[in-house]
Amino acid sequence: PAIRQKMEQAYVTSSRMEYKFWDAAYNLKKWI
Fold first, then answer.
1. Rounded distance between C-alpha atoms, residue 28 and residue 21, angstroms
2. pLDDT tens, position by position, 1-32
3. What is the largest distance, in Å, between two alpha-carbon atoms of the chain?
4. pTM of the predicted model, to two decimals?
5. 3-class secondary structure for the chain?
6. How far is CA 13 from CA 3, 5, 19, 29, 32, in A?
7. 1-32 as b/e, with b when 16 or more CB fall inside 10 Å?
């Protein structure tokens, strides 16, 4: 179904953004 595909896409996008956010926060912590 199209809805399931959209949900999967949204999940992948949000988890990727979350990973980038935590990765950036971790790297920032190393600098401080």
1. 10
2. 899 999 999 999 999 999 999 999 999 988 76
3. 47
4. 0.54
5. CHHHHHHHHHHHHHHHHHHHHHHHHHHHHHHC
6. 15, 12, 10, 24, 29
7. eeeeeeeeeeeeeeeeeeeeeeeeeeeeeeee
